[in-house]
Each structure stands twice: as C-alpha cells, then as structure tokens.
From TrEMBL, chain A:
It comes from Algoriphagus machipongonensis. This is Membrane protein. Pfam families: ExbD. Belongs to the ExbD/TolR family. GO terms for molecular function: transmembrane transporter activity.
From TrEMBL, chain B:
GO terms for biological process: protein transport. Belongs to the ExbD/TolR family. It is found in: Cell membrane. This is Membrane protein. It comes from Algoriphagus machipongonensis. PANTHER family: BIOPOLYMER TRANSPORT PROTEIN EXBD-RELATED (PTHR30558:SF3), EXBD MEMBRANE COMPONENT OF PMF-DRIVEN MACROMOLECULE IMPORT SYSTEM (PTHR30558). Keywords: Cell membrane, Membrane, Protein transport, Transmembrane, Transmembrane helix, Transport. Signal peptide: none annotated. It holds the Pfam family ExbD. It comes from the Bacteria. It is a single-pass membrane protein; Single-pass type II membrane protein.
Length: 154, 211
C-alpha cells in the first residue's frame, strides 16, 4: 500500500524550436497568396456575389477600375464615382486612361486588354452603362465584372 | 598549446525567432489583400460608327428571349412578370435548346448532343428555332441596381455553361475552370461550345429611372 514512487522532478522545457518554422510556413503562405495593396481605394467596395465566376489566365492584361460611392463624402459627394490609378475620374477621361494602360502592355497583347470593373453593389446601372459606352469608344471591349463566389443555397 | 574546451550541448535559443516571424506575419496580414481576379467575363459590342447604318437584322420574335429589369428590380421575362430571378437559368436553357424549327445544320447539331440535352428540346414552335439563332437579350433601366443586373447575367451564363459542360462530359464548375492552357483543355472547351455560341445581348439602358 502506498508504494507509489515519487517521480523525480525534472526541469521541464517545452521544445519551441519548431514554432518559428510553423509561423514561417504561415508567413510564406500569405506572401504567396496575397498581393501588396498598390493603391488606396477611394470608393466604397462591396462586391456583389455571383456563381459563374471565371478566372483570367493572364493577369498582366487586367486593368482595374473601381466604381462606387466615395468614402469621403464631404470631399467628393455621394454620387458614384469612378476610380482608376489612385484618382477619381470622370467618364470622359476613360478613353485616355485606357490608352495609357494599353501602352504599358507589350505590343502583342494590346488587343487583349481586359478591364476589371469592381463595382459596389449599390451602384445603379446608369453610371455603369456610361462607363461601358466609353469603354466601347476606347475599343477595350473585354470586361470582367468582378464578383465573389456565392454559396449555392440549394 | 590550445586547451580543449569543454564540449557542452549547445542549444540556440530560438524562442524569439517565433516572435520575429510573428511580426513579419502580422505585417503581411495587414498590408496585403487576397487577390480576387475572378468575375463574369463579358465582351462588349464594338462601337457604333455613326456613318454606317446599323445592319438590318431580321430576327423573329420567337428567337429572342427578352429579359427586362426595371428600376425597382422587377423582372419582365418574355412578357411575364417575375418577382425574382429564381429558375431563370432553367428557362433560358430550355429556350436555347428548344429546336423549334432546325435547319439541316441544326439537325446535325441536335443529333450530336448527348441524350440528356436532347431530352430538353421541347420543339415548341413559339420558342427558338435552334441554338445558333437564339439570342438572350437583357435590357435594364438606368435605375436598375448593378447587383440585380449581375444576378440575371449570372443566371444566363449559367444556362450556357450548363449546356457546354454537359456536352464536354464535365460538371459546370469543372468546365468553367478550364483555361485553355494546353491543347487538351482547348479541345474540351471547343467541344462544349461548338455550334452553340453564347449570344447574350445587353441593350443600352433606357433613360427612365434615377440618374
């Protein structure tokens, strides 16, 4: 009875040398899957959902255009505005902007320029159709309506 | 006359390395965004040349599937009022695959379709003649919300992708993920699309409704 031997006390050191490795793995994962924010977005962006999403193969051909209500209402008003390259612009500037973007691409790819429209879901079709008219004018006819995946509810 | 030092088990203290890595990790979490280059691809029509009159295309009313969306996001599909867009993809699919009055080419196309798609052909004389004639027209209003427009466009695209995927013997998701990177993928894409072009017309919104 009562013959439980007392264990010796050993100074316990939990090996933590693997912890940095795990965190580095996480770090590399994030470095690979994300992109650095290259511009500050001045308009609201609540991207609508859709199911039939396609991914473009050549990312270099994409130019982004953001449309939405300005975040700074006091400065820019509450009407939806267009943002491209860090600045708000009017629909009449789109043709020039598209030509600038196209000039940045290699000669062979210029026909395939794709405009990714990141539009807030509260925007009405009026401004969108103005933008589309301008894009047709600029002959940049490939348009990607950016959206996020919707979880099917059936 | 170097003296031998005592060899001890040397352990580098790596505890702070984790902290440094955490700092880096948090920096990346804060400054980056997850790239989302996904979306619905659409090709706009070429710009209208004012000197050239628009081509006079005679299309029978039955070959056009009209979807109207008004400023209150109500739908009028083929003259019928709808409260929401549910089930629109099935109707568009039935419209495209109707084969009401196929010509020779379309009859050959019909014979090449898998049985599950052949079964869809209702051969309704009121609906489209054959897929290459069928056009889906979406017309919005300046006051229509972008969200609704995208929802409708999404469902119409789904109808076409469903057809393509069935022809290529894939699920819709698999078909959409095909990028045409190599010949095998391109062949699958072509197999799906052959003879059934995605004909979606997006009409210019009318001026009614807000701004």
């Amino acid at each position: 009875m009562g013959k439980f031997g007392k264990k010796n006390k050993v100074s316990e050191n939990i090996p933590t040398s693997a912890l940095p490795d795990i965190i580095f793995m996480l770090l590399f994962f994030f470095m690979v899957t994300t992109v650095l924010r290259d511009q500050e977005i001045l308009v609201e962006q609540k991207i609508p959902q859709a199911t039939q999403l396609q991914k473009l193969q050549k990312k270099t051909l994409i130019s982004y255009m953001f449309i939405g209500k300005p975040k700074n209402v006091a400065l820019y008003g509450s009407e939806p505005r267009i943002q491209a390259n860090d600045a708000l612009m009017n629909p009449s500037d789109i043709v020039q902007w598209v030509n600038q973007e196209r000039d940045l691409l290699p000669e062979a790819d210029r026909g395939g320029i794709t405009i990714s429209l990141k539009v807030d879901k509260d925007v009405k079709m009026g401004p969108i159709s103005d933008v589309q008219t301008e894009l047709r004018e600029a002959d940049a006819r490939r348009v990607l309506y950016a959206s996020v995946g919707k979880v099917a509810n059936n | 006359m170097a003296r031998k030092k005592n060899r001890m088990v040397q352990e580098v203290n790596a505890g702070s390395m984790a902290d440094i890595a955490f700092l880096l990790l948090i920096f990346f979490l804060v400054t980056t965004t997850i790239a989302s280059d996904k979306g619905i691809l659409n090709v706009l029509p070429p710009k209208v040349d004012p000197n050239v009159p628009p081509p006079d295309i005679q299309k029978n009313e039955r070959n056009i599937y009209t979807i109207l969306v008004n400023a209150n996001d109500d739908l009028l599909v083929e003259g019928e009022y709808r409260e929401n867009a549910d089930g629109l993809d099935k109707d568009v699919k039935a419209f495209v695959l109707n084969f009401g009055a196929p010509d020779e080419e379309a009859a050959a196309l019909y014979n090449s379709l898998p049985a599950s798609l052949q079964a869809e052909a209702a051969r309704n004389p009121e609906s489209s003649d054959h897929p290459s004639e069928a056009v889906v027209s979406i017309k919005t209003n300046r006051g229509t919300s972008y969200e609704k427009y995208l929802e409708v466009l999404d469902l119409v695209k789904k109808a076409y992708f469903d057809i393509y995927a069935t022809r290529a013997n894939l699920t819709t998701d698999e078909y959409r993920a095909l990028g045409g990177k190599d010949d095998a993928e391109q062949a699958l894409i072509d197999k799906g699309k052959e003879g059934i072009a995605m004909q979606i017309s997006i009409a210019e919104p009318d001026k009614l409704g807000s701004n």
